[in-house]
Amino acid sequence: MEVSATERGLVRLFAVDLPAEEIETFRTPDTNEDGDLVAWPLKAALGASYLDEDFIELFPVRDLEELGLRGYMVQGLGIAEADVTEDTLRLDAIDGWVLVILSNAFDGFAQTLAPRAPLRWIGTYKEETAPVTFAPLPSDAARGVVETPGSAKSNPHLTLLWAILALPVAALLIGVILFLLLT
């Protein structure tokens, strides 16, 4: 299962075949005193080289109550209803724990996943996005042609050059006038 560095908007769904009492150990990263990751059974079972735990969810399907897994995928994860409907039988058959992994969990790190027990891949789904449209802007100010100014703007570099050249000439003129007045 390939994850590209530019992957966005994908949701991977796995069934987790573990008893409830083993889930916490499976879910929780084990770190040493320095905060370095020592072991993380979930990451190891996924075969991931990088995984951000802020973008994964692990929960029992029964917690979704009347919403159900399909409803959660459509309303909670933004997956197109047509995509979920195609997998109705498979999704309805899941009654234990599920792992949801969003693309952001890989944080742009390309990698190859090799899921193994207790994970069982259910499917990869694309988040539904709004279609891109190029409609004209509704404001009257956005209509018509932008007029260019009639005169060219002055170049600030030329203005500075004229000032530098004019300053010695002005000083010389003032000096001559003062010399004539004082003599």
Low-confidence stretches: none
Report the helical percentage: 25-40%
SSE-based structural type? alpha+beta
Order of helices and strands: EEHEEHEHHHEEEH
Tell me about the biggest sheet? Answer: 4 strands, antiparallel
How many beta-strand runs? 8
Average pLDDT rating: 87
How are the strands of the largest sheet arranged? Answer: 5-6-2-8
Q: What general form does the structure show?
A: elongated
Sheet-strand content, in percent, reads 15-25%
Number of helices: 6
Round the Cα radius of gyration to an integer and report it: 34 Å
- What is the distance, rounded to the nearest whole angstrom, between the alpha carbons of the first and last residues? 97 Å
